[in-house]
Design goal:
Keywords: ATP-binding, Membrane, Nucleotide-binding, Transmembrane, Transmembrane helix. This is ATP-binding protein of ABC transporter. The chain is about 65% helix and about 10% strand. It is of the alpha/beta class and about 575 residues long. Bound molecules: adenosine-5'-diphosphate (ADP) and magnesium ion (MG).
């Protein structure tokens, strides 16, 4: 609880002047709304006397009431602005901070939480905080002021009548509270259902191609429908409560007025109250119902908001993978690979994996070398390079950049020296040009871009697009073929190659002419000081300084083309198959 209050204080205290202004205008609002009934009372008493000659006084009172009503409109508006704007600003700040935090989490977090559910949960949580810091605080101020001023005015007029009024007010409070408790329960269930629905929707939409090609629309529709129905059920329950509780509260207000009318009416008949005082009292009683309802609401807002805060706190308190590691100075980053890279008896097990995906891997990459990695599907090639580029976290003492232990380096720093063109290409929904040089912004170097496009064998195809490199690639690059996507991804790496460039199977989706062209470009123009290429193509492996053969996570052979032809069965067989193809 204390931690949650601290959280709230941390975010609200920078807006203390806003809130202070809000409180001043709130006080003015309450003052205007309790002063108006006094003048109504005075005017009505003049009306009741019905004597000529009092018109001037009457006009004056009406003018005052009009003036107060105008003041009320203005100060109420300001009090709302001054409370709601900080709520929105806090929401904006939190969204930014949460995004930053989430980006710092490693693969394990995203393996366990789907993007859809993260988004919907965060929106909900932050919404809860916004409700507390805006509407919630306003209501608290409102309730505190109203419940201290209005009952005091009522009590001063008639203690007995005020006690009578308590009965319907307590009933109102209990109804709102009970309604709210049920509503909160259903709101949570609804939130979960919404999370599941958005998770499924996102996954089905991004897998739309698969759904179409396998003709499994019905299955997908049923899955979505199931969640949709449960979302509907919870929403309907919430609407039931809304449509019952709200009108009920409206009638309670009427009952309150009837009580005052009846008991107060008797006072008027007995001469204890003037007709004006009765009107004034009724106006106060009406003023009181709103804060009482508000109290029911505000408890819920805080309850829900606190649930949101604790969920935000779990995310905020989670350490990003690199939070505790010191960053490298820029000039060290640029020299990270200059003394080579050493892999020393590396074992790696995925956090959710059954056994180790890599076992006892050792090799060195000296500056200037070109190294190949080959092996069957699932042999651990991608896992190995993801260890090298800092995407996966390796155990201490197993991977060194020069003298530096990779487990003490930030992934970000490693990746500024080690560039990877991965097997699964991700393109942003933007132009080809921005996908290649993203982050370059205004500094886009046109000549360099053209050069990179040429060396990635994209020039011909881009030339055929009407908008050339300004062509939009569509969501995740759906406008392009697999091979085109892979080459854009290659061009992206060539645009800013880093010191060690890793290519994960980039030649798998290109024809042999293009492959030959790409290999020539890579080997002849030294793009990066070292090159690591995953491939099963002999035309590539032939030209490396040495190649590693992986089998079930183990390095079963290592050597030059000739050595491997002699030592590795897998390598020899692959060569024979491909040689047979060439002849
Ligand atoms: N995120 C992951 N979580 C758990 N296991 C994984 C993950 N990614 C890959 N693996 C497993 O690690 C092994 C090696 O996979 P991978 O490195 O992708 O092989 P390759 O790139 O050689 O085809 C496989 O058995 C695969 O199932
Ligand atoms: Mg792979």
């Amino acid at each position: 609880m204390l931690a949650k209050l601290k959280f709230l204080l941390y975010y609200t205290h920078r807006f203390r002047w806003w809130y202070a202004g809000g409180v001043v205008f709130l006080a003015l609002t309450i003052w205007a709304s309790v002063t108006i009934p006094e003048y109504i009372q005075k005017s009505i008493d003049i009306i009741a006397q019905g004597r000529a000659g009092n018109e001037d006084q009457f006009y004056q009172y009406v003018a005052i009431i009009l003036g107060l009503a105008l003041v009320l409109i203005i100060v109420r508006t300001f009090s709302r602005i001054l409370f709601f704007v900080p709520g929105r600003l806090i929401e904006r700040k939190l969204k930014g901070e949460m995004f930053q935090k989430l980006s710092s989490f490693g693969k394990d977090y995203y393996d366990d939480n789907s993007a859809g559910s993260i988004i919907s949960r965060i929106n909900n949580d932050i919404n809860g905080v916004r409700m507390i810091t805006g509407f919630g605080l306003l209501q608290i101020g409102n309730i505190l002021f109203s419940l201290s001023v209005t009952p005091y005015k009522m009590w001063a007029m008639s203690p007995t009548l005020t006690l009578y009024c308590m009965v319907p007010l307590v009933v109102i409070f209990i109804i709102v509270r009970t309604g709210m408790v049920v509503m909160v329960k259903n709101t949570h269930l609804r939130m979960d259902a919404l999370q599941r629905l958005s998770g499924k929707t996102v996954s089905f939409l991004s897998g739309n191609g698969v759904i179409k090609s396998y003709n499994i629309h019905k299955w997908a529709e049923n899955q979505v429908e199931k969640e949709n129905v449960s979302l509907f059920d919870y929403t309907l329950k919430i609407s039931w409560i809304r449509s019952f509780v709200m009108p009920l509260l409206g009638s309670m207000e009427q009952i309150l007025k009837i009580v005052v009318l009846f008991v107060g009416g008797l006072y008027v008949i007995n001469g204890e109250f003037t007709i004006g005082e009765l009107t004034e009292y009724i106006a106060y009683a009406a003023l009181l119902t709103h804060p009482i309802m508000g109290l029911g609401w505000v408890l819920t807002v805080f309850q829900q908001g606190f649930v949101g805060i604790s969920s935000i706190q779990t995310i905020m308190d989670r350490k990003g993978v690199d939070d505790l590691k010191p960053g490298l100075p820029t000039e060290e980053k640029s020299r990270l690979v200059h003394q080579g890279v050493s892999v020393k008896n590396l074992n790696f097990t995925y956090h959710n994996g059954e056994g180790p995906a890599l076992k006892h891997i050792s090799f060195d990459i000296r500056p200037g070398q070109v190294i190949g990695i080959t092996g069957r599907l699932g042999s651990g090639k991608t896992t190995l390079i993801n260890c090298l580029n800092g995407y996966l976290k390796v155990p201490p003492g197993t991977l060194y950049f020069g003298q530096k232990d990779a487990s003490e380096l930030r992934g970000h720093d490693i990746r500024s020296a080690v560039r990877t063109v991965s097997q699964d290409v991700f393109l942003f929904s933007d132009t080809v040009e921005n996908n290649i040089a993203f982050g370059a912004g205004l500094n886009l170097e046109e000549e360099h871009l053209q050069n990179v496009v040429y060396r990635s064998a994209l020039a011909d195809e881009l030339g055929r697009f009407p908008k050339k490199e300004k062509t939009m690639v569509g969501e995740k690059g759906i406008m392009l073929s697999g091979g085109q996507k892979q080459r854009i991804s290659l061009a992206r790496a060539l645009y800013a190659p880093g010191q060690l460039l890793i290519l994960d199977d980039v030649f798998s989706a290109v024809d042999s002419d293009t492959e030959r062209f790409l290999i020539r470009q890579l080997f002849e123009n030294k793009v990066a000081s070292s090159l690591l290429i995953i491939s099963n193509r002999m035309s590539v492996l032939e030209r490396t300084d040495f190649t590693i053969v992986l089998e079930e996570g183990q390095m079963v052979a290592k050597g030059t083309h000739e050595e491997l032809l002699r030592d590795s069965e897998f390598y020899r067989e692959t060569w024979q198959v491909q040689e047979g193809g060439r002849k």
